[in-house]
Amino acid sequence: MDIRDRILDAAKMVYAQHGFRGATTRLIAIEAGVNEVTLFRTFGSKAALFEALMEAHVARSPVSPLPDNPVDPEREMTEWCSAVLRHMRENNALIRTSFGEIEERPEAAVSMCEGPNCAGRILTDYVLRLQSMGIAADDGDVPTAVAMLMSALFGDAISRGVMPNGFPQPESEAPSKYVRVFMRALGVKPARLRAPVVRAAAGD
Amino acid sequence: MDIRDRILDAAKMVYAQHGFRGATTRLIAIEAGVNEVTLFRTFGSKAALFEALMEAHVARSPVSPLPDNPVDPEREMTEWCSAVLRHMRENNALIRTSFGEIEERPEAAVSMCEGPNCAGRILTDYVLRLQSMGIAADDGDVPTAVAMLMSALFGDAISRGVMPNGFPQPESEAPSKYVRVFMRALGVKPARLRAPVVRAAAGD
DNA sequence: GAAGTAAGTAAGTAACTACTTGCATCACGG
DNA sequence: CCGTGATGCAAGTAGTTACTTACTTACTTC
After folding, report:
1. Which of A68, A86, A134, B86, CA to CA, is 20 to 30 A from B27?
2. Do B155 and A159 touch (CB under 8 A)?
3. pTM of whole model > 0.70?
4. Distance in angstroms: CA B61, C1' D25
């Protein structure tokens, strides 16, 4: 791998674990397996390195889509939530650290929020489609329910490690549980009550 | 105020803003209006000061109660959520910072979680009472719904500043909106629809 | 007024941190 | 074979940080 990318990767790891102040150029260089001087020659300064890091991070954050034409809302939303949650969990230390430094370095947290912000809009649009199709009740408070679901994913990714019994068990079924509660809050009927055909795959 | 408490208060503020590494003994001393040497004479070391700080913090975190005999669930839960959310918002920088340092100093975040953990149990018990009274549907997923509501409060307190449009507007009405969605998810009827007699299940 | 105690002041120490400089090494193309 | 550019290495600089030491000041109590 390119030296620049190796340093960026190392910086990401070290930053996630130790924060900006704790992520010393020495540690980053060791983690990247390069000389500390190389780091300065490549990026100029620690601050510049972190700017590059944030840019690189937002550049390659995937955004999970939701189908334009909902067919099986429960399954579709569960898969979507699983993907979003997995992504958040993979980056959980990074998210926590950047949030913890909002006061001193807001840019980092703002970068981190682009993904979730976008995800929230995607989900909102999807649910509005469900409403207009008559699949979801038309008196549901969509923005609030979406905020709650997104917060649940966020909280799960970030806090489950510290307070495991505050979250649904087992971990692997959390997304489907969140989605079912979400659906009920918005008056979305489970598939088997809507369609003439029944479930072939009864999950639980 | 006692010098010890003045230092503890200052430490809390400075820590919330700058994190453990950034909260230098010098800054804390200035903020407390005492000499830096006094700080060391009082607590011995920076680490010991922070231990004392966490202890003091959990010692005086209030826990909002919920009535033993529910009368008006919507009002009661809304008031409770407002209180919990207010408390979280007041400490939002502190919560963020301690969460951001979980990897390096887990104790701080664990202390911060005691409150929410306890709050979650209180809410769960309350909802179970609603269920046994027939006010809430008996097929609702209480633990998951509670997790989602608590996450919503947590997320609101912590992230609203960075992504305001991810949360219900206006800020002041967020608690009541969360509660309404929560109630619907658990099949709790608004007060006016609840007759003295219980009707058959699966209304929606 | 003596004695004790809590606080301030000034100065210093050892370790660490971001960053620089100067020089050696090595791969590669002409 | 020679130059060039990327990298490593050793050393150094200036600033910061936790913590210490030695001394002074002010207030209380006997």
Report:
1. B86
2. no
3. yes
4. 39
